[in-house]
Amino acid sequence: MREVAVIGVGMNSWGELWEKSHRAIWTEAALQAIEDAGVDHVDAMYVGCMSGGLFVGQEHLGALLSDQLGMGPIPGTRVESACASGGLSFRHAYMAVASGMHDVVLATGVEKMTDVDGAAATYALSTAADQEYECYNGITFPGLYAMMANVHMNKYGTTREQLAAVAVKNHDNGSLNPLAQFRGKVTAEQVMNSVMVADPLRVLDCSPITDGAAAVVVAPLDMARSMARSPLVRVAASAHATDAIALHDREDLAVLSSTEKAAEGAYRQAGVGTSDLSFCEVHDCFTIAEIMVSEALGLFDRGSGGAAAASGATALDGKIPINPSGGLKSKGHPVGATGIAQIREAVLQLRGECGDRQVQNARYGLTQNMGGTGASSVIHIFERA
Amino acid sequence: MEIGIVGYGAYVPRHRIKLEEIAKIWGADAPSYKRGLMLHEKSVPTPDQDTITMSVEATRHALRRSGIDPARIGAVYVGSESHPYAVKPSGTVVAEAIGATPEVHCADLEFACKAGSEGMFLGLSLVKAGEVDFALAIGADTSQGAPGDALEYSASAGAAAFLFGKDNLLAVCEETYSFMTDTPDFWRREYQFYPRHAGRFTGEPAYFKHVSSCAQGLMKKAGLTPDDLQWAVFHQPNGKFPLKVSQRLGFPKEKVEQGWLCPTLGNTYSGSSPMGLTAILDVAKPGDRILMVSYGSGAGSDGFIWRVTDAIAAVQNAAPKTRDQLENQPIYIDYGTYAKFRGKIKTLKT
């Protein structure tokens, strides 16, 4: 296996991009990444997209977007793992380069979610849950995560205030990210008094509906060195694990076992532990998700993620900053693009190019991207080489 | 030659339903809806009231303020998206009821919530061209929101009527402007009872883009700034949007509040900004300048700048004032009565 580096990143301003189409949003981000990498072509590309079919009526994205980019006839592949589609798209690009199959590969993610109304978007997202057992009974994602939150609260005493602390912190960070969808700060009181969605989760506990794309370019580390981009960012680990898709098939609703499994593999591959990490970008689709992920990554003991969030340990200047980008909560969550945007943030942090939200002396950064209620988790660790 | 308003009037139905009463039925969180919509009750028409009856009431008020012979009205335009008939004009009934027939031009207009203001532009233009001595333009609606839909909390009923002429003006029309694009934010197709809307798309790319662009274009055309204008009124789909747009345009709240009827009236669609204008005319002083910008989904905005004349003071009390109608002795009804009044109860026929 060859060592792999990320040599270029791109992302557009996220939000309700009424006047831009799915393909236009994607192409903007892809071209930015290619320009940032300083390459004139890519050998292959991957597109992470959860549901082009239900959101914009467009599938066959590998071919369509290769053509949009003017890079046909390169092999273009669409990758889907619900909200983890972006992270998995990157993993496949990584494997293609590491294996020696390709040299310069584009990994992307995109979702155009605002062309449909709220009910249609809710339905599209629900396809990440178990249609025959969960959706059949009328459950939607806020409802599923609300059940997980209730179990976590009952079992460990996690509080409403601790959930709110996650939203407050991520909006604080997002206020420093010029590409974030919601750059406004929020207070704990605003979060706890916002509209109830699914008890205990309120609207400010939830990530938004977003249009957006992100892209990165990967290449062999040796080739990257010769291209003289400095500092180089090396992929130290790539891991992927799955779990039962339906909540009722899990042993413990308060544990994200796919994230635990993927994290074990990633730490082993990178040869690092949690204390080596400078920051993490994690999948905070709901506030409770960030708390549970922080525990599954081993950053905090099981049941103590909520208290850690409330203590400031995960703030930009805390012991282990989580979601310096603002996370899904503030930056936005165009589902297929999220995993790639996390990687872009990690690369920019390791390059030291994050301006006001820069984590000082960042050396290792971890990204965790999750599908559904955690039935798939994709984790990468990056190192400033 | 100056043209403008020679008579104005509004009509507000007496029945109201509180937002809590609607929220209770649908299990919705009333405080958050009230906060979000900045609206706490809305007017409801009774079974004997519709766009035609309200148009007649508002026009009678306008005629009392103008003192003109209705037979001299040369054009009647009723703007509404809730004309009682799909085919057969509302305007013929209105014109007959007020005594404007038979030598009169007449048509019903439809452009979502800006049909009334478009009628105002047409009426003013016919007077300006010398085709008619007086023109009548009405904005009126008894709009419906689907049960449980966000629109049900705001869709209400009301009418405003304006008589235009060239002598004895109450307010001179100093400038007009219109800004329109094809923006499908809200629609109702043939045979559908309730409209559909595109959620948050109705905000920035629809309402705010058109209202802001129209207001800015209008002020630029007139060479005026918010400092030159004593009053402003905007279309009011809810309480929040007009306040937000006025803030963005640089109008302080005190210039907007008088015409901001939505918190207790609801959204009267074609009647919305025209009714706000009547409420401002009820209190305006000679020399005051008023900016009015409507909004109709689809989407477009009509803008007008009015300069109030010395004649206003003598007629402000000649007919019921708009805020008096809004505030005096409302009759509150429950959701069941509301559902009956609005034809929301459908019985199965065997």
Features of the shown structure:
heterodimer, A: 385 residues, alpha/beta, nine-stranded mixed beta sheet, 11 strands, 18% strand, B: 350 residues, 13 helices
Walk me through this protein's architecture:
The complex is a heterodimer of chains A (385) and B (350). Chain A is α/β, with parallel strands linked by helices. Chain A has helices at 22-37, 52-56, 61-68, 85-98, 118-126, 141-156, 160-174, 188-193, 221-226, 257-270, 287-296, 305-311, 327-331, 335-351, and strands at 4-11, 44-48, 76-79, 105-112, 196-198, 201-202, 211-220, 233-242, 279-281, 364-371, 376-384. In chain A, strands 3-2-4-7-1-8-11-10-9 form a nine-stranded mixed sheet, sandwiched between helices. A two-stranded antiparallel ribbon of chain A has the order 5-6. The longest helix of chain A has 17 residues, at 335-351. Chain A is globular, with a radius of gyration of 19 Å. The two termini of chain A are 17 Å apart. The mean pLDDT of chain A is 97. Chain B has 350 residues and is of the alpha/beta class. Chain B has 13 helices and 14 strands. Chain B has helices at 19-26, 30-37, 51-66, 90-98, 115-129, 203-222, 240-249, 253-256, 262-265, 272-281, 312-315, 322-327, 335-341; strands spanning 4-11, 15-18, 41-44, 73-79, 105-109, 134-142, 157-165, 171-183, 186-187, 196-197, 231-234, 289-293, 298-308, 331-332. Chain B has a nine-stranded mixed sheet, sandwiched between helices. In chain B, strands 3-2-14 form a three-stranded mixed sheet. In chain B, strands 9-10 form a two-stranded antiparallel sheet. In chain B, strand 12 and strand 13 (298-308) form a beta hairpin. The mean pLDDT of chain B is 96. The interface between A and B is small, with 9 and 9 residues.
